[in-house]
Specification:
Number of domains of chain A: 3
CATH architecture of the largest domain in chain A: 3-Layer(aba) Sandwich
Strand content of chain A: 15-25%
Number of helices of chain A: 21
Strand order of the largest sheet of chain A: 9-14-13-15-16-18-17
Number of strands of chain A: 18
Radius of gyration of chain A: 24 Å
Largest interface: A-B, 104 and 104 residues
Oligomer: homodimer
CATH topology of the largest domain in chain A: Rossmann fold
Chain lengths: ~525, ~525
Amino acid sequence: MNGAESLVHTLLDSGVNVCFTNPGTSEMHFVSALDRIAGMRCVLGLFEGVVTGAADGYWRIADKPASTLLHLGPGLGNGLANLHNAKKARSGVVNVVGEHATYHVPLNAPLTSDIEGVARPMSHWVRTSVSADHIARDGKAAVAAARTAPGQIATLVLPADTAWSELSAGTDATASGVSAQPPAAPKVDAARVTAAAAALAGPDTLLLLGGKALRDGALVSAGRIAAKTGCALMSEFAVARVQRGAGRVAVARMPYVVEVAQAALARFRKVVLVGTTPPVAFFAYPGKPSMLAPPGCEFVTLAEVDQDLGDALAALADRLDASVIAPAGIAQLQRPGAGALPGGKNTSEGIAAVLAALLPEEAIVVDESVTIGRAFGAATAGAAPHDWLTGCGGAIGYALPVAVGAAVAAPNRRVVVLEGDGSGMYTPQALWTMAREGLNVTVVVFANRSYQILRGELLAVGAGEPGPRANQMLTLDNPTLDWTALARGMGVPATRADDLAAFADQFARSLATPGPSLIELTL
Amino acid sequence: MNGAESLVHTLLDSGVNVCFTNPGTSEMHFVSALDRIAGMRCVLGLFEGVVTGAADGYWRIADKPASTLLHLGPGLGNGLANLHNAKKARSGVVNVVGEHATYHVPLNAPLTSDIEGVARPMSHWVRTSVSADHIARDGKAAVAAARTAPGQIATLVLPADTAWSELSAGTDATASGVSAQPPAAPKVDAARVTAAAAALAGPDTLLLLGGKALRDGALVSAGRIAAKTGCALMSEFAVARVQRGAGRVAVARMPYVVEVAQAALARFRKVVLVGTTPPVAFFAYPGKPSMLAPPGCEFVTLAEVDQDLGDALAALADRLDASVIAPAGIAQLQRPGAGALPGGKNTSEGIAAVLAALLPEEAIVVDESVTIGRAFGAATAGAAPHDWLTGCGGAIGYALPVAVGAAVAAPNRRVVVLEGDGSGMYTPQALWTMAREGLNVTVVVFANRSYQILRGELLAVGAGEPGPRANQMLTLDNPTLDWTALARGMGVPATRADDLAAFADQFARSLATPGPSLIELTL
């Protein structure tokens, strides 16, 4: 058995059975091993940002890591922006990055680069295997690192000769004595629960939730705490995954715009943090604060993001004698019948109403709608129960790849991507993977033909109204992107919706049709 | 004047007047400054790999740096693969990377990352401006670093508050006392010329050329040296830019395949290196050597790549009393008339013949044809004089972006991109920039619907014939990419050529039509 085979066996033995790949020559022995050893689902991406984003989406839905397969430093570089997003989403990912044979590295061949240096800014754990005999232990360690709460980026660099060399006699090819399972997320201690319980009382106190505090069970505890104490509930802005919809505890999301966030937080004098930190502005702006809470607001941390957040909220509810009361803020089902759907031109409110009415049960919404979608969250609170995923690292181009991974993790659920035309152009190659794998993804592209958010940001930073050169950098209308052509070029059926009636019709048809489809919604 | 304005003035003052951009919020003050200050041509890319690749192509043709504008660590990450390629091509690039305001960085907002860490593996020079007053000097230093022979990657990180802050009274806004011009490339000393002259004698000696030794004037000297000594001429495999075609000194290119390169080098007992190093295999393979020259072959370095290579070759020709003799190996014009063009199905030889016949004078060929194109070089040696650019860092997805930069640098020349369907999918967004800017680019996509090179590599590394899972990672045929739809989706007219007659016809029409067009050539 060679090193590559040892790694594939080790990954499978560790419960990693999906590999998002974009391989090259230095990974051919790993590809060959995947070929010969049954059990790993291999999903090809035509660009590495698709691969790393898919691993992010897979973790968010499956709660376990996938592996990636990337080609040397530049391949990892292409995947870096979505690894950044995955890192900020606290997703666990096992990157396998090929490297030249150890003796070839010093020769400075064209593809030689400092792979560990490229990996480090976006990885929690980086290691280069030094021999075939080490690969199994390194693989186990990588999986354990990826699984370490709340989820980490682990990057294992695999020199070609360690992959192709035979293991020494007697080497344990899967390091069976080594665990790929890290300790469970630690529970919070009683003093924290006591302090949080003392802080929450009345509408000028806030329970601010992040990470896995936004899963259904944890939210039930949060709703009970709110019912008992009268505190408000809110989530951080960057939401890796929130479980919401009718019958679940509704949680408002921290607004993006500084002034709006300040207004939303203005009444709070105490904030209890669960899996998050004091809220900060997405960007700094001249003359505006970076911290969003009002001056003098007191923060009390119930649990850090790497702790057991569901347990922490349950313990707090228990401490407050709220464990069996009805949660506050349960969203009521609000689904207009098909006849009550709005018509007319495509507006943010109208689109939101269509989404709220038609989102299927257990849908996974991947939201990169940027400006047009700021009202979607509130409008869909009473839709059928679903998961809502947002970008967490601010690097646009996350949604189409994350949808790939989510759909691979949950083949029986419908994934709905809400995508801007600007953001979608960073990783459009994901559409091809959706077509190849027959993934049940509905992509809605909001075609406003501009980096609309930057128009607002130019004003927000005090840089004034755009002139001709700035406009050239903010508009996407010359030439106009034709998303239906782009989608068809990658094998995804596509339609264009110029009004809400067309959108509702096309959206309903897409949801009912297996495999991917794309709707370009003109604005 | 604020820091952003100071930087724009400084760049213009330093001769940098093209900026390839993909900005975000943290760069809005720089965008605003570009808007208000005349003189900078701003070219938007919809993905950062387009931006950095364009800067590479611009340098290769203009012999001076463009700047880029990138959005924080993830934006730089997306540009990293083509920065790697630019670094290996020895291109000079000035990256301007926005960063959060200095006081905002410690707050760990979503987009916060270690930008200098991301930059370092692919940069020669990295600096973060610490205040508005420092920006002019930092900008000058960045340009000087980018221009340092043979060309370097300089990355200047610009925190938002240094961009938006006003300069202190009395600060020189363009650091007018500081030079943006580094010392010229040093000349080689006489001892090196003497040693090289002594080494070259007869057909078992080779003059191996890289970098600017492949420009017209240097090649004339090389041809004279060959005529005088009987030595052979060859270029390294990675060729940033070679000037070739009828009337120029023809230079064979180092083959990619190890065995073929070994055979090409087998007869040489002495190799004189000019702007290159002893040739190494692109990848390592089990049981094959990394060094391509025969054992015992002696290497003599005439000039390092950062020295004045044209001067070194002229000095060597002079030392050999060859300064005025006719160069050996002048390529003869070989252009069949339109009636003599090959017909039938699309083959490598037939495509090469069409290219050789129709390439216009002063064309710039950007070659990422990978497997199909290995014969194109020899077949086009007698075409009209042209420049030929190849990928130098091995990261595919370089050609479409490099073509953007080359076309911006030379608006009156025709750029011809020879692109694989696999490699083209890494940075297809470049097509949109070609359309927006009306660039005179003809894109030929060779649609073999696979990572054809990897089929060969799988065999070459001894990993055997692909089975079903490996095949899934090597094929692009399910679904088939429709490049004509992709191109039209980005505003580029496109046609499909199923045979050589159609290709010749479409190629000729594209060359004669201003602006970009794309031909999908089915294989």
